[in-house]
């Protein structure tokens, strides 16, 4: 094997994995990172805890990658979720598995994952150049020749891996630079859309609940054609524009195809209770608070800040005595508790999305190596490729698997 000079554009998980693998094969590797430190976006994933992968059976991985998952068969076969877990365990990062097979560092610190990847690169003698933005990738006769930095510095290279991420969270450095470089070299970019993103709603009453987190609730989602596309239990958050939180982010990927608009969210405040049992529960509360007004009798059933909005949606006077609530009104309460409805108007901007859907067309990349079919010596890894997954550690699995495949194929 001929030792090569390799440039990795982007010091995120995909880039560092590619760098470590390529350097481990004896190549001279440089990482060009525009920030002053690596893994800026990874550091904020999972609220700083970093859901690094998912411990599901390997045949379930592709099912959780709706964005061109089949393209990743070769890569995930070569470097799977279990290989990722072994990598971090071997490097002294103890892991734990939580609900939904989500895998986190036992310390709950994303910095442990970042440090392990950075150390892996450095131990293989990778040179990491921080505060180094790449202006242009040079090519000649259909082959990579080098890169030029913003400051004019020229690096002659035999191979380049573009691992610059997408357009989400631009403050972390994901500003779409890689798309422009790839397009200049003749690659096609599919439409870039937000995925795993907060949602805006038609209903304005959500503003009254801004900042309220609901835990252990059920969420069912219907697309604009009325088809049920998602249902799960967990946590969600009301905001000044609509809704967010883990459940909503997961749901958002299921309504990406219809453009979000017109989709309906149905919130079940008491998913563990049937309507019949919930009705009996309300009757017991009403017996207990029989001398109180409706507005003062719901504090054991709902968060305090939600009570005025709930009564407003019920269209019952808040001062109405509990002992005067009719059976019909009580049934309306049960129905509302089991189905608070919100209509999606649109998603939040792509800059607020966790992941970018879209990117370099997969039919222009060799799935076995991540090498460009248009330019020899040009490789892709991570979010810049037109692949994306649901929440649960799958997107970082994609980043690390494609990074490994690219780095070990050079």
Provide a descriptive summary of the structure in words.
The structure is a single chain. By secondary structure, the protein is α+β, with helices and mostly antiparallel strands. It has three domains: 5-193 and 358-409, FAD/NAD(P)-binding domain, CATH 3.50.50; 198-269 and 340-347, Translation factors (Elongation Factor Tu (Ef-tu), domain 3); 275-337, Helicase, Ruva Protein, domain 3. The protein has eleven helices and 19 strands. The protein has helices at 13-24, 58-61, 73-78, 81-90, 110-123, 177-184, 246-254, 275-288, 307-314, 327-337, 394-409; strands spanning 5-9, 28-32, 53-54, 95-98, 102-105, 127-129, 134-140, 143-149, 154-156, 159-162, 193-195, 199-201, 213-222, 228-238, 242-244, 264-268, 340-347, 355-357, 378-380. It has a six-stranded antiparallel β-barrel with strand order 12-15-14-13-16-17. A five-stranded parallel β-sheet has the order 6-2-1-10-19, with helices on one face. Helix 1 (13-24) runs parallel beside helix 5 and helix 8 packs across helix 10. It is elongated and about 85 Å long. It starts with a strand and ends with a helix.
Remind me, CATH topology of the largest domain?
A: FAD/NAD(P)-binding domain
Assign the CATH class of the largest domain. Alpha Beta
Strand content: 15-25%
N- to C-terminal distance: 10 Å
Average pLDDT over all residues: 95
Q: How many strand segments?
A: 19
The helix count comes to 11
Largest sheet, in brief, is: 6 strands, antiparallel, barrel
Coarse morphology: elongated
Query: What order do the SSEs take from the amino end to the carboxyl end, as H and E?
Result: EHEEHHHEEHEEEEEHEEEEEHEHHHEEEH
Please give the share of residues in helix.
25-40%
Decide which structural class fits the backbone.
alpha+beta
- What is the second-level CATH architecture of the largest domain? 3-Layer(bba) Sandwich
Task: Give the CATH superfamily of the largest domain.
Answer: FAD/NAD(P)-binding domain
Q: Which stretches are poorly predicted, pLDDT < 50 over at least 5 residues?
A: none
Strand order of the main beta sheet, please? 12-15-14-13-16-17
Q: Domain count, please report it.
A: 3
Give the C-alpha Rg: 25 Å
